[in-house]
């Protein structure tokens, strides 16, 4: 059995890649949902591969990962939008950064870029700060929903004979006859022939359970604004010129038509600190308005949130074999989302087959294409009408903000959704302007009816995140 510790976008894609060769793949996730850690709280950007330090593992895998996303999009039925990106110089001092990015792009083998002058840039992005002088434009940059990639990848593993187990926090490891016995907080234990540690913020702590040391991980918090869909601010991802610590506060079109502004980048003590702060959000407003002055933070804000990234002093990925048949995939900070498909191939093709000398043969019965329940609002009305004739639930709107029907909610539950966040990330219900004020009671009722769970036992996400604490009348 091959054990993958962690179901974020990197862990799920590694598990999927191994599953192409070996059926007996188990994903162990400490949390109650798929992709709900680092994967959930980031910008969702597929970077162009031009920015990372030449010679680093990040630079080697970022550009390769970018190229693999068209294949990922097709095979996993996930949305990838190649909206492009601009790194914008607003003054003479920042023009030096554009030259440095071009030099890095050349060293990293990235050919898909242009240096745009003021006129060309403002034609493409009319809402930009009119002080903009130039941009480093990369047309292959894009956006996706990283949690959707993780969810579809884990679905692929299950369809192809693997297992996905949630609420499995690893607490102890024993070596046993060249294998590992894995002990979990819930009292269960499993024997694994090979373990892949992809535990995100906790990968350094998990490594110690195997007697290995990887670079120390410290959390860096990024705070964001999510802005609505009714105002068009930008066509592409808008970056400021980068600093040594961060790519800066960005303006990012989301897959479903909204916009992100952020993130900040400040070290915090706790790996569970997802709070937003007055200071952090003020920083986001000031820095993002410097790029796009038309951003409306008074009337167009949907929500604020924060995510954590696993940073190390080395500022590079650590992906290597530990003691015995264990591989540690650690320090996966930006551009981890972009590099994820390439990391999966690196682990399987290089570390497992070449470094560990484990011979793998592709399975003949592997199912490569994974379908997804379509968002009906994205289909034409004739198609939607035909679906309603077959299933009247397709005509009952549950989430009015994002136009999500009862049929879509029920399909998500059929596919394993048991919490409100499971439904949210599978369907986008409660992701819109009202943030679930209207639809959460309806979703709660549907989950209860479809699963037999009592409403007071249905969680928002993790243990203890109850919505109601006693019996109520559901209408």
Low-confidence parts, pLDDT < 50 over ≥5 residues? none
User: How far is the N terminus from the C terminus?
Assistant: 47 Å
Structural class: alpha+beta
Which geometry do the CA atoms define?
A: globular
User: Proportion of β residues?
Assistant: 15-25%
Q: Describe the strand arrangement of the main beta sheet, using strand numbers.
A: 9-2-1-13-21-20
Q: What is the number of helical segments per DSSP (H or I, 4+ residues)?
A: 12
Number of strands: 23
Largest beta-sheet details: 6 strands, mixed
Radius of gyration: 22 Å
**Average pLDDT taken over every residue:** 96
Percent helix range: 25-40%
Description of the molecule:
The chain is of the alpha+beta class. The chain contains twelve helices and 23 strands. It has helices at 9-19, 57-76, 95-107, 118-124, 146-159, 203-209, 278-291, 336-355, 381-390, 406-414, 420-427, 440-451; strands at residues 2-5, 25-28, 45-46, 80-81, 85-89, 114-117, 134-138, 142-144, 163-165, 170-176, 179-184, 189-192, 194-197, 218-227, 237-240, 250-253, 259-262, 266-267, 301-311, 318-321, 326-330, 397-399, 404-405. It has a six-stranded mixed beta sheet. It is globular and about 65 Å long. It starts with a strand and ends in a 24-residue tail after the last helix. The model has no long low-confidence stretch (mean pLDDT 96).
């Amino acid at each position: 059995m091959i054990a993958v510790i962690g179901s974020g976008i990197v862990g799920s894609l590694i598990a999927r890649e191994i599953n192409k060769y070996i059926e007996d793949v188990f994903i162990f996730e400490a949390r109650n949902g798929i992709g709900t850690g680092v994967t959930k709280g980031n910008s969702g950007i597929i970077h162009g591969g031009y920015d990372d330090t030449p010679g680093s593992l990040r630079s080697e895998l970022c550009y390769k990962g970018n190229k693999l996303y068209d294949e990922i999009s097709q095979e996993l039925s996930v949305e990838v939008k190649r909206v492009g990106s601009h790194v914008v110089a607003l003054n003479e001092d920042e023009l030096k950064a554009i030259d440095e990015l071009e030099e890095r792009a050349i060293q990293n083998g990235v050919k898909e870029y242009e240096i745009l002058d003021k006129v060309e840039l403002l034609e493409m992005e009319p809402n930009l700060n009119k002080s903009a002088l130039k941009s480093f434009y990369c047309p292959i940059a894009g956006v996706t929903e990283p949690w959707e990639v993780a969810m579809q990848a884990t679905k692929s593993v299950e369809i192809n004979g693997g297992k996905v187990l949630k609420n499995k926090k690893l607490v102890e490891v024993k070596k046993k006859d060249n294998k590992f016995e894995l002990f979990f907080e819930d009292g269960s234990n499993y024997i694994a022939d090979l373990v892949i540690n992809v535990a995100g913020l906790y990968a350094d702590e998990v490594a110690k359970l195997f007697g290995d040391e990887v670079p120390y991980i410290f959390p860096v918090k990024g705070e964001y604004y999510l802005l609505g869909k009714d105002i068009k601010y930008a066509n592409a991802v808008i970056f400021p010129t980068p600093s040594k610590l961060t790519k800066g506060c960005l303006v990012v079109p989301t897959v479903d038509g909204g916009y992100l502004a952020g993130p900040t980048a400040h070290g915090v003590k706790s790996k569970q600190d997802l709070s937003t702060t007055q200071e952090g959000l003020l920083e986001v407003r000031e820095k993002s308005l410097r790029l796009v002055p038309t951003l409306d933070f008074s009337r167009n804000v949907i929500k604020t949130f924060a995510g954590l990234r696993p940073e190390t002093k080395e500022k590079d990925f650590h992906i290597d074999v530990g003691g015995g048949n264990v591989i540690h995939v650690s320090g996966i900070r930006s551009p981890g989302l972009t590099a994820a498909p390439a990391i999966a191939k690196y682990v399987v093709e290089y570390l497992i087959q070449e470094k560990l000398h484990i011979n793998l043969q592709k399975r003949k019965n592997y199912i490569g294409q994974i379908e997804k329940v379509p968002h009906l609002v994205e289909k034409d009305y004739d198609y939607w009408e035909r679906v309603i004739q077959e299933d009247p639930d397709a005509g009952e709107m549950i989430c009015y903000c994002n136009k999500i029907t009862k049929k879509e909610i029920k399909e998500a539950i059929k596919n394993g959704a048991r919490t409100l966040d499971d439904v949210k990330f599978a369907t986008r219900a409660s992701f819109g302007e009202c943030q679930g004020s209207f639809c959460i009671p309806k979703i709660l009722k549907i989950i209860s009816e479809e699963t037999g769970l009592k409403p007071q036992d249905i969680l928002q996400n993790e243990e203890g995140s109850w919505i109601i604490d006693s019996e109520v009348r559901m209408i």
